[in-house]
Amino acid sequence: MFNMTQIETFHKSSIRAQPPASEIASAARILRDGGIVAFPTETVYGLGADAFNAQAVARVFEVKKRPRFDPLIVHIHDVAQLELVAESVPAGAWKLIRKFWPGPLTIVVPKRPAVADIVTAGLPNVGVRMPRHSVALELLRAAQTPIAAPSANLFGRISPTDAAHVREHLAGSVDMILDGGPCSVGIESTIVSFAGKVPMLLRPGGTPTEEIENLIGELCVPEPTSQMSASPGRSLRHYAPATPVVIATTPSILPGLRKGLLAFTPQPDYITRDFDVVEVLSHNGSLNEAACNLFAALRRLDQSKLDVIIAKKFPEQGLGRAINDRLSRASQSKRIEP
Ligand code: TXA
Ligand code: MG
């Protein structure tokens, strides 16, 4: 017999096709007129506003309840748009752009004055990316302006990887939700900063760090203490379900609690029988598939009335690095109440 939880993980995805062109056109019109629109990208859904319209961007912060010190990524559909937002782009950044755009990579470079200060939280640098998603690209083209967009979730909560997740947090408070079906990568973009002397990895994400380092050499990782200034928003508890998350090597701990297990691959019975709910992220050990399923699985676990979610550490390679980063943020400082 099938376990319903597992069926959902693997089959829920294929329901929705592209939105009709008329919907994309309406969304673009709303953005041009200073409205805010949630839209799909290959990583997660974004909540967009015209990057040159400070008032529209301010609404994005309000709706998400996001603190103003946490800057937004600006999305473009063509490298030609880079010069609208970036003052300069160093050679290393160009190497990455040529190889990884469109795709899950954000570069941080000195900003043009025209980019509203609220977008960059007052920083002199701007994060820019070109998404690899046909709906996002069409929308950006039709909007005719770069779009500042954080993930379309309430601040600090799990990022949305389909339109239903966006509705859960933001229905009624945004002007439109463009439904482009489930996201194919499922974890946010990798962020590399070229604002300092050496390139820095500000966030591991959908582009594997190894592939970036193969092109431009080893990346520096900011010290935890300097993270606030290098990449605001990084040092906070983030990507967090309401249920406490514990990363454990031996998962059969905490007797007497309702426990969920977030596993990379199918687990033997002697492990799963200790858990009330088990989510398996990949049947064949694919880290890409695991990343794609991660946030939806965390949401389902969070809705299962558990006392605790136990996650085993993923291999520190490819997208495993980004998965471990999100899990460790989700596990920050939440008390377990039996
Ligand atoms: O895949 C993604 O990146 C998604 C989709 C929607 O594009 N966006 C996303 O945005 O994850 P958000 O707002 O949830 O995360 C943006 C993070 C900020 O918290 C901050 O750490 C970093 O990007 N960031 C943005 N602009 C920056 C800047 N100028 N300097 C340093 N870090 C920046
Ligand atoms: Mg976010």
Molecular structure report:
With 338 residues, the protein is an alpha/beta fold. The chain folds into 2 domains: 21-216, DHBP synthase (Alpha-Beta Complex), CATH 3.90.870; 239-330, Rossmann fold (3-Layer(aba) Sandwich), CATH 3.40.50.11030. The protein contains 12 helices and 13 strands. Strands 7-1-2-6-3-5-4-8-9 form a 9-stranded mixed β-sheet, sandwiched between helices. A 4-stranded parallel β-sheet has the order 10-13-11-12. The two termini are 32 Å apart. The relative contact order is 0.15. The model is unreliable at 1-15 (pLDDT under 50). The structure holds threonylcarbamoyladenylate (TXA) and magnesium ion. Residues 41, 43-44, 46, 70-73, 104, 106, 108, 120, 123, 125-127, 129, 149-151, 188-189, 191, 193, 202, 231-234 line the site of threonylcarbamoyladenylate.
List the helices and strands and how they pair.
Layout: H1 4-11, H2 21-32, E1 37-39, E2 46-50, H3 54-64, E3 73-75, H4 82-85, H5 91-100, E4 105-110, E5 125-129, H6 134-143, E6 147-148, H7 163-170, E7 176-177, E8 190-193, E9 200-203, H8 209-216, H9 227-230, E10 245-247, E11 259-263, H10 269-272, E12 277-280, H11 287-302, E13 308-311, H12 320-330
The structure holds threonylcarbamoyladenylate and magnesium ion.
Magnesium ion binds at residues 150-151, 159.
User: What Rg do the Cα atoms give?
Assistant: 20 Å
Number of helices: 12
**End-to-end span in angstroms?**
32 Å
How many individual β-strands? 13
What is the residue-mean pLDDT, rounded to a whole number?
Answer: 90
CATH topology of the largest domain: DHBP synthase
The distinct ligands, each listed once, are: threonylcarbamoyladenylate, magnesium ion
Strand order of the largest sheet: 7-1-2-6-3-5-4-8-9
Shape: globular
Q: What are the segments in which pLDDT stays under 50 over at least 5 consecutive residues?
A: 1-15
**Helix proportion of residues, in percent?**
25-40%
Q: Which CATH architecture of the largest domain would you pick? A: Alpha-Beta Complex
The number of distinct structural domains comes to 2
Q: H/E order of the elements?
A: HHEEHEHHEEHEHEEEHHEEHEHEH
Structural class: alpha/beta
- The share of residues in extended strands comes to 5-15%
The CATH class name of the largest domain reads: Alpha Beta
* The CATH H-level homologous superfamily of the largest domain: DHBP synthase
The description of the largest β-sheet is:
9 strands, mixed
